[in-house]
Give the backbone structure.
Amino acid sequence: MIDRADDGRGGRERVDALFISYYADVDRWHNDWPADIARRPARAVPEGRVDRTMMGRIERQSVRIDGRPYDFPRFLSRVRYGHTREYRRYDAYTPTHLSGAYYESLFAARGVRVRHVNSSDRVVIDRLAERVAPRYVLFSTSFMVEVPTILDGIQRVRAAWPDATVIVGGFMLGELERDVGPDAFQRFMGAWGADAYVMSAMGEEALIAILESDGADLGALELPETYVRAAGGGFRRSTDREERGFEMDDSWVRWDRVDPASLYHTVHVRTARSCKFRCSFCSLFVVEGGLAFAEPETLRKELTSLKSHGHVRSVIFTDDTFNVPQRRFDDLVRVLADFDFEWYSFYRSQFADEDTVKLMRDSGCRGLFLGIESVDDQVLRNMNKATTLASYERGLEQIKKHAIPTHANFIIGFPGDTPENAQRVVDFVDRWEMPFYSVSPWFLAPSTPIWDQRERFGVSGKYYNWEHATMNSRQAIELEQWMIKQPKQAVYMSQLSSDHFWSEIMMYSNGFTVDEAREAARTFNAFAGEDTPAAVLDADPRVERLRALLTRREMAPPAEALGRHFEARDEPRQPAR
């Protein structure tokens, strides 16, 4: 086994592996940098031109103060503290990620020390490099949607630990390989510079073989669904065998094996893998394979283990279809009712019934993500959503009756959609008095089932550049921006500048009421897409009220000390009041 002792000279701590479950691009914000790092110039967009790139959309949904862009967590940090250095208190990626906690738990029982880095950027990587010497670095792409950010993260890991073996995995790999094809994916892997890429949605078998190999040549190992460097250049599959994987009833987190100091008070858990449904715009079931469930009693075991950490009080279920099948879901809710945890999940409202929704509320349910996607029945049929608007509304009646907060998500521009439907979405979220909602332009990816139906629907193009008989991507992107400020009741929570539902969870789990969370988001939206002088913004009564709210509802800092690199950042330009 790998020597896990300190080097004895006051040097870096030796660990078997670092597991980096999230890497962020801090370069895009230009406002919360360490003083000793040169800033990349802000992007210039010609006056009068609308930037429809991903970065352009992010900036249009962000707040600019004296020319500098602020996303939602950085905006809240600046309002509360006068600077952005505490933005992780408000960041949607601060709750403890499932993948890192799972592998820390799994390998602890095998005598291998895995240190989970819950949130990182290039400054965190640099500081970890000064303090920690891992034999392996495990880098997850699951939360990352932009290839340049993946490239930046992996290359910085490689530079920080040139002697470590770098293993990359996560959902995005499987999706990207299907989207770009084998030749382009080979070029991506070469540019990223890792030693191996685990493509399986599970990954346990390959990682166990690698971490327990005691430094053996990766090419000599049999690693299912894994690319390793080939002798003649490029990457080859280690073996043609598929991963057998662990049963769901075996692959739960033993939280008593996880370092309590690394846990936020809110953590991610799961009871299932993949999805029962086959929505034609989604690649999740394509990448993750067959649907697998854990028994409700397995959840009881996991929550009992989690209780050993008394400061953890909320759980977020990652299950894509948590409330299907119904009988199993009823049993899961009864298990949850035996514990004191608050919980949040994805939810398909067409299956809601009064008895279950009441039990959900009583068992600690404090928020639901509703993937409604469209208010047009023909579009829902084209999406293969297996539901109707009337079915959604029957379920919404029960959710509203029992006052469970919701976030409704919609897709703009799917085949059959029309620009007029945007107003129908606005009317819908207001009529149902939904606390929060979000919309996204349709993303046409080759990894999704709709790709093979393009001719049927008259679709040309791909990604965020497409058109069909009733809409095009340019219209969809414009409508996305238009819908931010349209509803009278519902509040828009951007996916691009705040990561929608998960930002709401951050506020709820830190004691915010629904109305307080809405006030925070509504204030942010009031300035989104504009450039406001600092003096004007700070004197605005809405900002003054938000500052008082954030002072009253002080949010917990992240658990991970190395994620809080505050001391080297710029001094505040505007003092908190």
In short: The first strand starts at residue 13 and ends at 20.
